[in-house]
Design goal:
5-stranded mixed beta barrel; single chain; alpha/beta; 446 residues; Rossmann fold; 19 strands; binds iron/sulfur cluster; pyruvate-formate lyase- activating enzyme; binds FE3-S4 cluster; binds S-adenosyl-L-homocysteine
């Protein structure tokens, strides 16, 4: 068979890195089953939307996109909806969108090629059973990023934060075997990459029955060629002393932690069932910073959670200032069907107007903190990994170990390499930098 006669598949990904990683696994599986990758939906034989259900907005985008596809796609193309929205809505999607013929949840991707073949013959199907053994170990992911590799180490979530749909869409928590993660890491290094990002919803609660997250960090960090090791997202309650010690002692572990706080009010945290208080969160940050001086911290915050008072919200603002986050992803609460938060009294609902106004104040507070910290870093030298071309001006986008974006001049062939840069300017959120030619320092004669 010549290349051109192979059918093509196009995958569009929404949501978190876990979904990106799942898309890489799906694409790998489809390529292994005889498909070529298409970079646009227009001419693809199979179109997959790998979806997110975290907020209503995420689902609305997918619904809009599905509508758009109808007029754009090839007449006989197979359209599939996968991921968290597929899991949440299941057969309802087939009912509502007649041009969709596949609905597959996060544990069903093993059946993807078969269901696609059936769909090409006109058989529509839903596959949304959870499979607690499924880690897709025999799949060979086709990675979209050529510089850093996403490595899922845990699927599902056993927490029950009252606002969150993830336990419903991804099922119970389970971890991969440490050996499998190490094997994948070796393959990643052999492919020429040196940064690994371990993924899980509460990644630091990882356990394969024998090894915990501390063991995993040490084992992955010990793989020859791994220069940068990151993980997302940890939960404050799962940062044991052992895990923190492993972070500090493993050279590859980067000086950055993304630690979702959600709220700075203990009352709200309790209602969110986050299982820590404001003080508990601060204590976790202190333990991390004591073990790793200079550690950068980013976070996730929700405003407008049911029952959040102005006072609660002010506590969130003061917590943002007190921790001194390097950055924060901020969200307006979105009610998700079936989650405990939807069963709170109607009178607790925060109007969109109030939530929007709080979000704006929160963003201001986060930005001014980030700006102040970034101004303070000007003139410093940092090691960066050059990730990709910047959006503008023929420049390159690079990243420091502590997760700052630095825009530098340079040639495309520098992508994937390391350099030392001086931070010369900042927009407030990102930096511009100049590459510093490093002098080889010879040990002084005694
Ligand atoms: N497992 C991760 C978070 C995954 S979801 C953790 O526990 O940290 C990513 C972020 O989306 C969350 O941290 C939260 O800030 C936000 N989020 C989740 N559900 C939401 C909802 N119903 N409305 C608004 N934001 C939400
Ligand atoms: Fe959702 Fe909470 Fe689980 Fe994170 S820890 S995925 S916020 S339930
Ligand atoms: Fe969205 Fe599912 Fe991730 S709901 S945030 S894609 S786990």
């Amino acid at each position: 068979m010549t290349e051109s006669t192979r059918p093509t598949v196009y995958i569009e990904t929404y949501g978190c890195q876990m979904n990106v990683s799942d898309s890489e696994l799906m694409l790998g599986k489809m390529v292994a089953s005889g498909y070529d990758e298409a970079d646009a939906p227009d001419n693809a034989d199979v179109i997959l939307l790998n979806t997110c259900a975290i907020r209503d907005h995420a689902e609305q985008r997918v619904i809009g996109r599905l509508g758009e596809m109808k007029s754009k796609m090839k007449k006989d193309a197979v359209v599939g909806v996968t991921g968290c929205m597929a899991q949440r809505l299941g057969p309802q999607i087939l009912k509502r969108a007649k041009h969709v013929s596949l609905v597959i949840g996060p544990d069903g991707y093993r059946s993807l090629p078969l269901l696609v073949e059936n769909a090409r013959r006109g058989v529509r199907a839903t596959a949304t059973d959870f499979d607690l053994e499924e880690h897709y170990e025999d799949f060979k992911p086709r990675r979209f990023d050529k510089v850093k590799a996403w490595v899922p180490v845990q699927r599902g979530c056993d927490y029950r934060c009252t606002y969150c749909i993830v336990p419903t869409t991804r099922g119970p928590e389970r971890s991969r075997q440490l050996d499998e993660v190490v094997r994948e890491t070796r393959e990643i290094v052999a492919e020429g990459m040196s940064e690994v990002v371990l993924l899980g919803q509460t990644v630091n609660s990882y356990t394969d029955g024998i090894h915990d997250f501390a063991d995993l960090l040490r084992a992955v960090g010990a793989v020859d060629g791994v220069k940068r090791l990151r993980f997302t997202s940890p939960h404050p309650n799962d940062f044991s002393d052992c895990v923190i010690a492993a972070m500090a002692e493993t050279e590859a572990v980067c000086e950055h932690v993304h630690l979702p706080m959600q709220s700075g009010s203990s009352r709200t945290l309790r209602r969110m069932l986050r299982r820590y208080s404001r003080e508990g969160y601060f204590e976790c940050v202190d333990r991390l910073r004591t073990a790793m001086p200079g550690l950068a911290m980013t976070t996730d915050i929700i405003v407008g959670f049911p029952g959040e008072t102005e006072e609660d919200f002010l506590e969130t603002l003061s917590a943002v200032r007190e921790v001194g986050f390097d950055d924060a992803y901020t969200f307006k609460f979105s009610a998700r069907e079936g989650t405990p938060a939807t069963r709170m009294p109607e009178s607790d609902t925060i109007s969109d107007e109030v939530a929007s106004e709080r979000l704006a104040r929160l963003i201001d507070t986060v930005r001014s903190g980030t700006r102040e910290r970034n101004l303070g870093a000007l003139g410093e030298r940092r090691e960066v990994l050059i990730e990709k071309q910047a959006r503008r001006g023929g420049l390159l986008q690079a990243r420091t170990r502590d997760f700052k974006t630095v825009i530098i001049p340079g040639e495309i062939d520098m992508i994937g390499t390391y350099a030392t840069v001086e931070l010369t300017g900042t927009t407030g959120s990102t930096f511009t930098g100049a590459v510093v030619r490093e002098r080889v320092s010879l040990p002084m004669a005694v």
